[in-house]
Write a structure and sequence with these properties.
The complex is a heterotrimer of chains A (324), B (318) and C (326).
Chain A lengths: L1 H27 L4 H9 L5 H11 L6 H13 L14 H36 L4 H14 L3 H15 L19 H38 L2 H8 L4 H39 L4 H10 L3 H29 L6
Chain B lengths: L5 E12 L2 E13 L4 E5 L6 H8 L7 E10 L2 E2 L5 H7 L4 E4 L3 H4 L6 H12 L4 H14 L16 H13 L5 E5 L7 H18 L2 E6 L2 H7 L2 E6 L2 E7 H6 L4 H8 L49 E4 L2 E3 L5
Parallel strand pairs in B: 3-8, 3-9, 6-7, 7-8
Antiparallel strand pairs in B: 1-2, 1-4, 4-5, 9-10, 10-12, 11-12
Helix pairs in contact in B: 4-5, 5-6
Chain C lengths: L18 H17 L3 H18 L1 H4 L30 H37 L1 H16 L2 H12 L4 H11 L1 H16 L2 H8 L4 H37 L10 H10 L8 H29 L7 H16 L4
Helix pairs in contact in C: 2-4, 2-12, 4-5, 4-7, 4-8, 4-10, 4-12, 5-8, 7-10, 8-10, 9-10, 10-11, 10-12, 11-12
């Protein structure tokens, strides 16, 4: 319990830091950011809206501290301002539409990469001296260290353009209506294959190596030798004795991987024109839509922090030495 | 004479390292009779644990057994198939490892670690296995409810008892104990040893007791064997080995232990450093540290000769 | 095994070798040992050498001026323009060589900055412990938990067009936490070892202890962390370049991707404009990863590789065969 409380307070502090960073950012730019935004909006915004933005940001005069509190208030009441790009839709709505897709892409590919990678890693540690153990890990290390966009671009070209096997844009066929129909879900899955596949390719090696190295360390432990001496089946020794212990350092690595997964999903979305946060972020950057950009950053940070917290809970569940 | 329970003939165990091949066990032969306690003593690295591990073929790369036979009731363990080996393990020979903290899986309950070996070898229901588990814990003096505890929730002495309970689970004929009390304080050590006496009385198993503590062995063993640098250099009944050793190394070993009784004497150790297994000398391995070394010791390896019936030593001076 | 002479072999070398030659030979042997029986090292090392040489000798190896328009747009690869031309009529081959210099120097520079910070923070935190450790650890964790690439993108967006030096600094300053954490835990492990405590008791100055006793033991993970950061920085530079952040007028692999993207080269069939820098990035990242992996392999004895394993396999097989188990 102590552990969980400490983690929660840590995440909350991190979140506050993120908000503060967001607060400072427009103030670091030369000139008045609100004016700049207004100019970029090219007449789509009226004065009333500009004032609303000013208020949201806390540029209302009063001391620095007052402005800070005012901004905090906006954030915690989900008032993230109007979007310049999608005016008059406000930022919260825009983000709300695209966030689920990013979560789907980032966490979905993380989970798949985790399951496949851990299995390969376990087998590679078992067959350390054989072909599998000697060849597969370096091969995967090579493949996975292509930068995210590179893998995405290559897959995009080979499977999408050259051989026209899989769809290249959007999260589902735009002509369909969202719902729980087979057709819709099928379309979602079909559109997810390339972007997710690209992310899984990049992510897999981390898990292969993490699990393989963890297994190798664990396989040298006395309790594994004793399990073998007991005449237990090798399946049981591998999974219940070795694997069950090796998974702990892997679980610790999940937390870090979450941040990378979200980062990677942004780039992948851009390449595949997938309608998640990354795509919107790009459009926002092009249009200099600062409220949108900052909001996306905040949401991303929150998503990562939440996912990290869930990963912590997972670790507590896995390691009986922690939960007291 | 009853046929031996375990018969080891000319066993050799090698370790392949980047710097060469080290022979950890060199041509060792010995027997263990049913119900007998055989102690193997020697300093760290002399090969006693390696010998013990070889009995149930626990060695992994880079260890290899190039020569030798190990007969358990007339079956050569080294020739068993994987399936036969798995049946043999724990059923006939079980092991109590040195550090109970490290030999218990930290993330599953100790109950599971007792029941899984029962279920792997016997056709019983889960409930029956749990019941047997409780029984085993009670035999070693731990409350049956502790089946659902994790190893980190138990004290050092309790953990060692759990490991002994697991070793007894299938009522094997031979239990190998590799320094079972080294990690415990003397009080707990005494308790555990007393319990061991009682258990042995009750179940009648043989014990292969490995330790560097010769005085402990003098108490509980029927026969004692002494190893140095992979060779068995002396073996015989415990009283004689302990009170009247023949080999210079054994003499040196015994002289290194202080006694509580009698006048205070100055301790003699054994001069020199343990021999490097990768760079063994020609002739007797002990020559560099032996106070009675003569010319022939540097040329020929002394054989393990029978000095009296049931008593052997390997030294040119005998 | 029983027959070697105990007498040392080194006593009777009459030859008068200079210290320098001896050192050269030692280095040569160590390098050879590194590559021996280590295929990932060989492949990775070979690729990296090719790439580094290409970058180093770019002006000599290039066939045309990478910044100037030299031909018609989107010419397919042929004998004159080995890798084709871009939308703006520039030679892709010359560009990829030139771009190598920029991209690699940004990545390496960022790697150096990040590693220096990581070592400073990690060692200080691990060695001094206490309040210093608490605060530094907290800062490290906070940095670690933030998704770095989005942060970079937003920063770059706010700062507008910036030179590659700024990008390198930004990358270095945001990617140190990962290495710092590993270095800290390793320092903690070494710190409590006896040789450190005895050095302290003897009154050695703390700085000297850190430099002479602790740092040498950290070399392999520091180097591994450095390589990892370089791989990451390269990918991040490519991502930022692709998005048009950073300096799009300078030739780098990232900016090549940007121009390829804006000219829809993939759609118009001019795949070479996009895929050449992509493959260059892929090969470099992969090669560095292989080298990193093989360093790991060397420093971890549990991984059981090496020529002695072959001997073991043979002995094991023979023993099994003689017992009728095969």
């Amino acid at each position: 319990m102590n552990f969980i409380l400490r983690r929660l307070s840590f995440y909350f502090t991190a979140f506050l830091i993120a908000i503060s960073f967001n607060f400072l950012l427009p103030r670091l730019m030369p000139g008045d950011p609100i004016e700049a935004m207004f100019a970029a909006a090219q007449g789509k915004m009226d004065i009333a809206q500009m004032d609303a933005v000013r208020e949201m940001y806390g540029f209302m005069g009063g001391s620095f501290f007052d402005q800070y509190i005012s901004y905090m208030h906006s954030v915690f009441t989900f008032d993230l301002g109007p979007s310049v790009l999608m005016y008059p839709i406000d930022v919260t709505t825009v983000v709300g539409m695209s966030l689920p897709w990013t979560i789907f892409l980032a966490l979905g590919s993380l989970i798949v990469a985790l399951i496949i990678g851990v299995s390969i890693g376990t087998y590679a540690s078992y067959r350390r001296e054989g072909f599998f153990g000697q060849f597969v890990p370096p091969f995967l290390a090579f493949l996975s260290n292509f930068p995210y966009i590179v893998t995405a671009l290559i897959l995009f070209y080979v499977f999408g353009l050259k051989y026209d096997l899989l769809p290249l844009a959007y999260t589902y066929d735009p002509s369909l209506d969202p719902g729980f129909s087979f057709e819709f879900i099928g379309s979602v899955l079909k559109h997810a294959i390339l972007p997710m596949g690209s992310m899984i390719l990049v992510g897999i090696a981390t898990w292969v190596f993490n699990m393989r190295n963890a297994m190798i360390n664990v396989l040298g432990e006395d309790y594994v030798t004793m399990a073998e001496a007991k005449g237990l089946s090798s399946f049981r020794v591998m999974y219940r004795y070795a694997g069950r212990n090796a998974i702990l350092p892997v679980a610790t690595a999940i937390a870090m991987a979450i941040g990378f997964a979200f980062a990677g999903s942004i780039m992948t979305e851009i390449v595949f024109n997938y309608q998640g946060l990354g795509n919107i972020l790009l459009k926002g950057i092009m249009a200099r839509d600062y409220p949108l950009i900052q909001a996306i950053l905040l949401i991303l940070v929150s998503a990562v922090l939440t996912a990290n917290f869930v990963a912590d809970l997972l670790y507590v569940w896995l390691d009986p030495r922690i939960s007291k | 004479m009853k046929s031996p329970l375990l018969e080891i003939n000319n066993l050799c165990v090698d370790y392949v390292s980047p710097n060469g091949i080290a022979r950890a066990v060199n041509n060792v032969s010995l027997t263990i009779a049913p119900g007998e306690t055989l102690g193997i003593a020697g300093e760290s690295g002399c090969g006693k644990s390696t010998l013990a591990f070889a009995i149930t073929r626990l060695h992994k790369a880079p260890g290899v057994i190039p020569e030798g036979e190990i007969f358990y009731n007339d079956r050569d363990i080294l020739k068993m198939s994987d399936k036969e080996l798995r049946n043999f393990r724990w059923n006939d020979v079980s092991i109590v490892f040195q550090s109970a903290m490290n030999s218990l899986n930290p993330v599953i309950t100790i109950g599971e670690q007792i029941t899984d070996v029962i279920l792997a070898h016997k056709k019983v229901t889960y409930k029956e296995a749990v019941a047997k588990g409780k029984e085993l814990l009670e035999i070693v003096g731990i409350h049956g409810d502790r089946l659902s505890s994790f190893s980190h929730q138990l004290s050092g002495g309790m953990r060692q008892r759990v490991v002994i309970a697991i070793a007894l689970a299938l009522e094997p004929k031979l239990i190998i104990m590799d320094e079972p009390t080294t990690a415990l304080d003397v009080v707990v050590e005494r308790e555990i040893l007393n319990e061991l006496y009682d258990l042995k009385e009750k179940f009648g198993f043989s014990i292969l007791f490995i330790s560097h503590d010769l005085s402990l062995m003098g108490e509980i063993a029927d026969r004692i064997g002494v190893m140095y640098a992979g060779n068995l250099i002396e073996i015989g009944d415990a009283k004689t080995v302990f009170n009247n050793p023949s080999h210079p190394y054994t003499k040196g070993l015994l002289a290194s232990f202080p006694t509580i009784h009698g006048p205070k004497e100055r301790l003699h150790g054994i001069p020199g450093d343990p021999v490097n297994l990768l760079k063994l000398p020609v002739g007797c391995n002990f020559q560099a540290r032996c106070s009675e070394c003569v010319a022939i010791c540097k040329k020929m390896v002394p054989a393990l000769d029978e000095l009296r019936p049931g008593y052997k030593a390997a030294c040119h001076k005998l | 095994m029983n027959n070697s002479n105990i007498a040392s072999k080194n006593i009777s070398t009459p030859r008068h070798e200079s210290e320098f030659r001896k050192k050269c030979r030692a280095v040569w042997f160590k390098t050879k040992a590194f590559f021996d029986g280590n295929p990932p090292a060989i492949v990775g090392g070979f690729l990296m050498t090719v790439i580094l040489l290409g970058a180093l000798f770019a002006p000599v190896l290039a066939t045309h001026n990478p910044d100037k328009r030299v031909a018609r747009p989107h010419v397919a690869p042929n004998s004159e323009y080995i890798l084709g031309t871009t939308r703006n009529g520039r030679d892709v081959y010359s560009q990829v060589l030139q771009g190598a210099r920029k991209t690699l120097s940004v990545a390496i520079f960022a790697g150096i900055i990040a590693t220096v910070i990581a070592v400073s923070v990690g060692v200080t935190s691990g060695y001094f412990g206490g309040k210093i450790d608490e605060w530094m650890n907290f800062a490290t964790n906070v940095f670690l938990v933030f998704p770095q690439l989005p942060l970079l993108i937003v920063l770059a967006a706010f700062l507008g067009q910036v030179s590659s030096v700024v990008i390198a600094v930004l990358l270095g300053v945001t990617s140190w936490p990962w290495g710092a954490r590993v270095i800290r835990s390793q320092t903690l492990a070494i710190r409590n070892k006896e040789f450190i405590i005895s050095a302290e008791v003897m009154g050695e100055s703390k700085i000297r202890i850190i430099m002479v006793e602790i740092l040498p033991n950290l070399i392999s993970i520091v180097f591994g962390g450095f390589l990892g950061t370089v791989i990451y920085a390269m990918g991040a530079e490519a991502a930022l370049g692709f998005l048009g952040l950073g300096d799009a007028t300078e030739v780098s692999w990232g900016s090549m991707l940007y121009w390829a993207q804006t000219s829809s080269s993939l759609y118009t069939g001019a795949w070479w404009e996009m895929l050449v820098p992509a493959i260059a990035l892929a090969l470099t990242g992969g090669a560095l990863a292989l080298i990193n992996m093989s360093i790991d392999q060397i420093s971890n004895p549990k991984l059981r590789t090496g020529p002695h394993m072959k001997i073991w396999k043979k002995m094991h097989k023979e023993a099994d065969r003689s017992r009728g188990l095969l």
